[in-house]
Design a protein that fits this description.
138 residues, two-stranded antiparallel ribbon
Length: 138
Amino acid sequence: MLSKTAELESLVREKADLEEESRRLDVEQKKLNLRAKTLYEKLIQEMRRKNTEKQQTLSQLQSKIGNLEKQLANISGSGGLADSEETPAEKSDDSQNDQMPEAYEEGPAGADDNVTVAEIEEEIELNSGQDRKKRKFF
């Protein structure tokens, strides 16, 4: 009977130890969840700050482009460029095409040094051995 009593006490102690471990693990899980939440909040704040900086940079660039387009319109003497309803990209393309110096347009006699630049947006799959990579070219 003594062995059964000792065995029962051993089981009770093991149960108490497991309950204590469970409580300790619950506390640890709460701490880790709180830490993860805090890190997510810091990450979100940092991303918002960086996005705000990027938005300011974009705004400054758009302003600079607007000023440059106005200067170009003033230099070329055409008031139509600034008054038209084209987008800034269209204005830029038109002004680059229309405002080339004559010497550049004509080029040296007999020389074919024209360069064409085109934007390409397509993904090309490259197979190198067993690795397959997708790359986006612009």
